[in-house]
Design a protein that fits this description.
By secondary structure, this protein is α+β, with helices and mostly antiparallel strands. Helix content is 55%, strand content 17%. It has nine helices and ten strands. The strands form two sheets. Strands 1, 2, 3, 5, 6, 8 and 9 form a seven-stranded mixed beta sheet that branches. The protein has a three-stranded antiparallel beta sheet with strand order 4-7-10, with no helix packed on it. The longest helix has 36 residues. It is elongated.
């Protein structure tokens, strides 16, 4: 009885934590593009919160004129506004602020693009709602900004994490699991780099739909597990994880493309973003493995039916994972 209740709780946890959205809350985005020595094109993207724009506002340096009152328009996923601002002095050394960010739970990325090709990407957080614009970004600044972006993107991307979680359910051998996760890492690193550099380009909606389909596939493989007759996904899981990892890399590239890469530091920015993704992925795996370790210790202490727990939990969890992924698949296909 205890085993059945626990297994149901695990399944409901997966369902509850992922049903709301494949991506929890995308970061805001502020772009300043220099059109003339004193003229800047401004683009501000506010995250959507229950059908309304997040209550944040971009405050440009005091040397720039304030925009007229503009109503944001919905672009299908967020609320956007754009305007032209005249600045009486250089913006380098001046402060940009996002009012209202301190009470939110997401970040805002600010990208400043100069006429000569220099690009500066800055990150504003609820703990640090303003930043100083630098004329030339430092290598460490570029690396740390994109590393943080990659880390947050993978932890907010429930579909990517659910794929990794399904791999943990499917593969029982430690070395095969390490091989599968390594193959997944290598694959999405390849397509992330190629797509970010413009060598590969696929429409976003079909890619997102196939990512959901990859999770459905793994959930089915978990349900069809037979110790006497292991399937290809269990005998050579790196083949499956590498193939689907190529598609997940295109999903990562979609987020990176929206933000853009600094023209003079593209390799460093790519490295930072990819390292952030890997750190987030490793952190997630460590948390799951730790929870499993604690669970085993609890089973050893409390009188539970270990065999019943072992038999029921993977099945119910696989159904929950597959159900959520199927919901995403239908939702994304209907949005084509």
């Amino acid at each position: 009885m205890i085993a059945r209740v626990f297994a149901t709780a695990v399944a409901l946890w997966v369902l509850t934590m992922t049903m709301a959205s494949a991506h929890a809350l995308e970061p805001g985005y502020l772009s300043l593009k220099q059109m003339a020595p004193s003229t800047w094109q401004v683009f501000f993207r506010k995250p959507d919160v229950q059908g309304k724009p997040m209550q944040i506002e971009a405050v440009l340096p005091s040397v720039c004129d304030a925009p007229v009152s503009l109503e944001p328009r919905h672009d299908g996923s967020a609320w956007v506004t754009s305007w032209v601002s005249e600045c009486s002095e250089e913006v380098a050394g001046k402060t940009i602020e996002i009012q209202g960010l301190a009470t939110q739970r997401t970040d805002v990325l600010a990208r400043i693009e100069y006429r000569d090709g220099r690009t500066n990407t800055l990150r504003l957080t609820p703990e640090n709602t303003y930043v100083t614009v630098t004329a030339t970004p430092t290598a460490l600044g570029v690396l740390s900004s994109y590393l943080a972006l990659g880390f947050e993107h993978i932890l907010e991307g429930w579909d990517h994490l659910l794929f990794v979680f399904a791999l943990l359910l499917l593969i029982r051998d430690t070395w095969r699991l390490i091989g599968a996760i390594t193959a997944f890492t290598v694959a999405h690193s390849i397509t992330l780099g190629l797509a970010a550099l413009g060598y590969v380009s696929l429409p976003g909606p079909p890619v997102e739909a196939i990512i959901a389909l990859s999770i459905v596939f793994l959930a089915i493989e978990v349900l069809k597990h037979d110790p006497r007759n292991p399937r290809l996904s269990e005998r050579a899981p790196w083949v499956v994880s590498f193939a689907f990892g190529l598609l997940h890399g295109l999903g990562f590239a979609g987020a990176l493309t929206e933000i853009g890469l600094p023209a003079n530091d593209i390799p460093l920015a790519l490295l930072g973003f990819n390292l952030g993704v890997e750190l987030g992925q490793v952190s997630f795996v460590l948390v799951v493995v730790t929870c499993l370790f604690v669970l085993r210790r609890l089973i050893a202490v409390f009188p539970m039916s270990v065999s019943g727990l072992t038999a029921i939990t993977p099945t119910l969890t696989a159904y929950a994972v597959g159900g959520v992924a199927t919901f995403w698949l239908v939702e994304r296909i209907s949005g084509f």
